[in-house]
Amino acid sequence: MKINNEFKIGSSISSWQYEGEFDDLKENYMERIYRLDKENWFEGYGPQHGCDFFNKMEEDVELYKKLGLQSLRFTLDWTRFIDDYDNATVNKVYSEFYMRFVDLLLENEIEPIIILEHWDLPGVLYEKYDGYSSQYVVDLYVKYAEQAFEFFNGKIKKWLTFNEPIVIPELCFSQAFWYPYDVNLKKAILWMHNKNVASARAIKKFRELNIEGIIGIGGLNVEIVKVKDETNLEDVKAGEIAKYFFEKKFLMPAVKGYYDYEYLNWLKKEGLEFYCDEEQLKDIMENTVDFVGINYYHPRRIQSPLPEDRTGYGKYFSDYHDSNVEMNVDRGWEISPETLYDLAIKLRDEYDNIPWYVNENGFGCVEKEKSRNKNGMLIDDYRIDFINRHLYYAVKAHREGCNCFGYHTWSVMDNLSPFNAFKNRYGYFEVELENNFKRRPKKSAFYIQEMILNRDIELCVDKSKYEKDEYEL
Ligand code: BGC
Asked: Is 127 annotated in the active site?
């Protein structure tokens, strides 16, 4: 199947997972939870390490070029880009670093796509105002966005407001798997809403300032909900509630300009309603997105709530693991490439065929003991299979009239994840922690290089042809 020229293949990186140490005096939300909960981060690695991008940026761009990447999504760290949050003054060193990066990408004909937040709320705004619980923090986010728009205006043609806006509310305050392990679903829902308001208001500002290009939100984790037993009313009810969160929570306001009415009623009934005024609803309604970025890793299987699972959303639904499905065991995630196709059809048919792209999709696993060829190259055939099948369904959807304009993997390099740190690896390039974070291509790097060059994809891939003896791309 031919990949049309307008369909772009790229990859995504993020600030605090890549950069390394910047300024001791300021910490973002992730640096803060690392400091306060260090013992739960695998082998002690944290955001102070990133994967040494600050020192390896030029070298990395050369590697992107060698892979043939057509676009590269990066995130800007609000905490680092701005010095004084109240007055939104831009940090010279950090902003110039990213300007050099953007220029280098452009010189190498790689389109930069920028995202303005990836869980990097300034820690001090969390401490002083409880983060996105506060309207003032929403205002400060918009001020920051304005500075970023003006700083990069003309160079960036695609902008995004938030990456995975659900993750911190969900993992810190609803399911509370992450520090501060504070179960407070009402707060989680308020944060989600205020991120919708902040996104709409940043979009409003973007348009008022006549910034070049288009703007959206993403990556939204739209996790298509699959109910355990469609004939069991309790499971179906649980599935409907799960859909509010995993399918509609951000997508509906972003694309349609309003929330699901039944969701609002349900919140009220449960005493979970959030503060919301006319002005906010008007801004959400009038500032819908030009496009969305979707982070797709796995579908979400749901059943009625289990008795042992009664915290956060657990009161309303539980996850369900189907023992017959294909799994990425290390990560505990189901592998379901066809679901990406279903998601594309949903966006086409239920969301006005909004333009979108896969902003993140990838395979993370423990690679320490995995096989290597005689030159020591990591043979990550599982990653080739994973990427090939997901890319295939994105391309198929594109060819069938879905407005999907591209596919980005998570990620180019192995990098740091929250808590798991470097335990699971995600990159086309292995990062050798004990060897000054040296990058070495894995077999999947040769796969994507050829795929981008030949632009022809089938569901089954002959992996033997990427078995290289030499070690240079
Ligand atoms: C996030 C990344 C993270 C990855 C693996 C994605 O959903 O956007 O930041 O590293 O998951 O956990």
From this structure: no
